[in-house]
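--- STAGE predict ---
source: upstream dedup step, 1 unique chain passed
mode: sequence only
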Amino acid sequence: MLAYRSGIFPMADGRDDPEVFWVEPRLRAILPLDGLKLSRSMLRTLRRGRFTVTCNAAFEAVMEGCAAPRRESEETWISGRIAASYRALHAKGLAHSIECWQERPDGGRDLVGGLYGVGFDRVFCGESMFSRVPDASKVALVWLVAALRRGGGELLDCQFMTEHLASLGAIEMPQARYLTLLKKAQRPVAGATEAACEGAGAAGAGAAAVAAGDGAVLALPEAFAALLEDAKAAGSSSSPGNFIAQSFTHTS
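--- STAGE serialize ---
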């Protein structure tokens, strides 16, 4: 967590690599929470509710999906040691996942996409995403952005720029600029003392902030739940994806 708070993140050379190396890119990619670009087809996908979206329902399965090679010759950077570390962070309420499920005719459902990352203060560091059917990872990312906006998040770190992220509105900046934004997004939450948050991780910090009357900062699971409550209050409990699509349409 000290590394993440300092703008550094871990990687490995392969699944069986026992070593971990720390990365501080010269150029950093972020996705501005007010700059997400959604195509018409993506808005239709959200409105039609092709996927059921959850938070922290299958963290380990999402990690496994992200670690699976996209191509036969491709090696993953998510080693067994790194995966164990994120499972430990998840247990402490500091690492979270968004899952996309597809319903089956028999009433069951399959995990078809998702993402995971590390959250603290007003920051979420996206680590990896995967998709087994078209648009699943994009829908997970849209829900992540919506939840971060609902919870008072300010910085969504994407680490390295890709064509996929650029198409969704990600921007690239020097590491020094990223560190400035990172420091700003870690400013103390009004009324949330260390004693109130001790032992509860990011979720505890969010709960303490709400209890203190701040109400502006929520950990991702709480922000996700609040988003579902907003959809229910707006009469969209059966189609929260439509509520999400409307929220981006109204603010674009």
